[in-house]
Amino acid sequence: MTTTENRPGSTTVTEVIDWSAAPTPSDEAGWLERARAVRRILERDAAARDRAGATPYDEVALLKEAGLVTLLGPVEHGGGGQEWPTAYRVIREVAAGDGSIGQLLGYHLLWFWAARLVGTPEQIEAVEADATRNRWFFGGAVNPRDQDLRIRDDGDEIVYDGRKSFSTGSRVSDVTVLEGVLEGTDTHVFAIVPSAQDGIVFHDDWDNIGQRLTESGSVTITDVRVPWASAAGFVDKVFQPRVYNTLNVPTIQLVFVSFYLGIARGALETGAEYTRTVTRPWLHGGHDRAVDEPYQLDLYGDYQSKLWAAEALADAVAAEGLALHRDAWNVTAQQRGEHEVRVAAVKARATEVALEITGGIFEGLGARATAAGLAFDRFWRNIRTHTLHDPVAYKRREVGARLLRDELPEPTWYS
């Protein structure tokens, strides 16, 4: 990696790896090894970077140079040619090193892929080619809890105006995905626009307890113009609907699952290393090493078992989703609904396991591990912050409704 020059407020990633000297990975094993190399770089100073909370220019440069931003891109344009099950595992690896950067990568890959979910075949080909060749990093201003952006039809163009509370990726993105409603209709329109333009103002007001480097603050959109030809899925100003359009929600929920489980693994493995090397045995326990304490063995055994189970479920659900992605134009409402129920189940389980591990790991560390400089609390803060994105109780309800009443969830922005 060649680090970017230090901009004002930029963090510094000091590891130097010449990624260009190594062959581009051609299979999942190769991409996972590359993701682990990125993780090893990020985790070395993750606590300090979390504390600084600076804009992660260097971290995004690392993702680009390692090739992870084009993981899903076409091989003929220089991309990795991989599919979602691999992408989810790569996100997990990166999130184990730094939860914020895992989230940024996950959101980027979703928006990179969004043309395939919503666009026409011609738009898909054009967007994926340009995004891969230019190594675009995607952000998105599509928070459905806010009032929709307003869109007016101006002949050959549409014009976006409004404000969103969250815009993950903001200043580190090359392009931003916008979504709004066409005036006088209930028609939603997605489009990809350059992030650096006068009509997009990022307010740098993300100041939450966790996921501090995700650049998720608010944004104001003023008179941002897009050709009708770039309105995703529209032909002659008319949307071409298909069931596959609604798979964006199960996909983003599995992205969430991926960085939740990655953060949990980061907490577990970082905690285990601290327990092996620093934690002292209890003076009345009769053991010379902390790793011989029965309660330590029980704690870590319990957490590892729960994490393995959640990861296995996540992998199984990802494989089920891959079958739908591969038959994109023929997905039925029944197939979509059944998949969403399984996604809801793994989202609920990943949330619970990640909160338990990141909060409970302190039992295996000891009081000295609460020192601010170690920042072991960052794992819990990161999980606690993002798992409030949408209530997990509604995920469990979807599963219960399927089991008890044979009901499938209707597609919404969250299900």
UniProtKB/TrEMBL annotation:
Residues in Acyl-CoA dehydrogenase/oxidase N-terminal domain copies: 38-125
Instruction: Tell me the Gene3D superfamilies matching this sequence.
Output: Acyl-CoA dehydrogenase/oxidase, N-terminal domain, Butyryl-CoA Dehydrogenase, subunit A, domain 2, Butyryl-CoA Dehydrogenase, subunit A, domain 3
Which GO biological process entries does UniProt record here?
A: L-leucine catabolic process
Highest taxon, organism lineage: Bacteria
Domain Acyl-CoA dehydrogenase C-terminal: residue ranges:
254-389
What's a Gene Ontology MF term here?
Answer: 3-methylbutanoyl-CoA dehydrogenase activity
Q: InterPro entries under this entry?
A: Acyl-CoA_DH_C, Acyl-CoA_Oxase/DH_mid-dom_sf, AcylCo_DH-like_C, AcylCoA_DH/ox_N, AcylCoA_DH/ox_N_sf, AcylCoA_DH/oxidase_NM_dom_sf
Key words, A-Z = Flavoprotein, Oxidoreductase
Q: State whether keyword Oxidoreductase applies.
A: yes
> Is Hydrolase among this UniProt entry's keywords?
no
Q: What is this protein called?
A: Acyl-CoA dehydrogenase
Organism listed in the record: Pseudonocardia ammonioxydans
